[in-house]
């Protein structure tokens, strides 16, 4: 079973920066999409940024956050600048892989990290 391990969360003041990193336990696994999601208390989990060759950002973070991916190392990172208190959440790494499943059908495998807390507060 592939594991995704996040690091880099913590406490930062408004306007500060943090860099989140996520590494897959299997370097040779070929993921299709790698992404970052977040979940604030009392809210649903939401997409922050994703990359599958193209890159997409949530409107609320575009211009402040940057997602990057290293396919050779099977890692994905999220550089977060100009952080705001409303960015406080647990951030989750996500990856998926489309494979040939049983019976000739395609099967999507989804993987989640355990989450890392980001707190933006003075």
What tags apply to this protein structure?
seven-stranded mixed sheet; mainly beta; 122 residues; four-stranded antiparallel sheet; elongated
Describe what you observe in this structure.
By secondary structure, the protein is an all-beta fold. It has no helices and eleven strands. It is elongated, with a radius of gyration of 15 Å.
Question: How many helices?
Answer: 0
- N-to-C SSE string, H for helix and E for strand: EEEEEEEEEEE
Q: Pairing-aware structural class of the strands and helices?
A: mainly beta
| Mean pLDDT reading | 95
Alpha-carbon distance between the two ends: 40 Å
User: Approximately how much helix is present in the residues?
Assistant: under 10%
The count of strands amounts to 11
Detail the poorly predicted runs: none
Helices and strands, with pairings:
Elements: E1 4-7, E2 10-12, E3 18-24, E4 33-39, E5 46-51, E6 55-57, E7 65-70, E8 75-80, E9 89-100, E10 106-112, E11 116-120
Parallel strand pairs: 2-11
Antiparallel strand pairs: 1-3, 3-8, 4-5, 4-9, 5-6, 7-8, 9-10, 9-11
In short:
By secondary structure, the protein is mostly beta strands. The chain has strands at 4-7, 10-12, 18-24, 33-39, 46-51, 55-57, 65-70, 75-80, 89-100, 106-112, 116-120.
């Amino acid at each position: 079973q592939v594991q995704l391990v996040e690091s880099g969360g913590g406490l930062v003041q408004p306007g500060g920066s943090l860099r989140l990193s996520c590494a897959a336990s299997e370097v040779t696994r070929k993921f299709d999409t790698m992404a970052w999601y977040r979940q604030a208390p009392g809210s649903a989990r939401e997409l922050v940024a994703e990359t599958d060759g193209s890159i997409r950002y949530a409107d609320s973070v575009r211009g402040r956050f940057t997602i990057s991916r290293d396919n050779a190392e099977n890692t994905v990172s999220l550089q977060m600048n100009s952080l705001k208190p409303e960015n406080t959440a647990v951030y989750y790494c996500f990856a998926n892989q489309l494979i040939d499943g049983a019976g000739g059908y395609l099967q999507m495998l989804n993987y989640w990290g355990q989450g890392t807390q980001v707190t933006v507060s003075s």
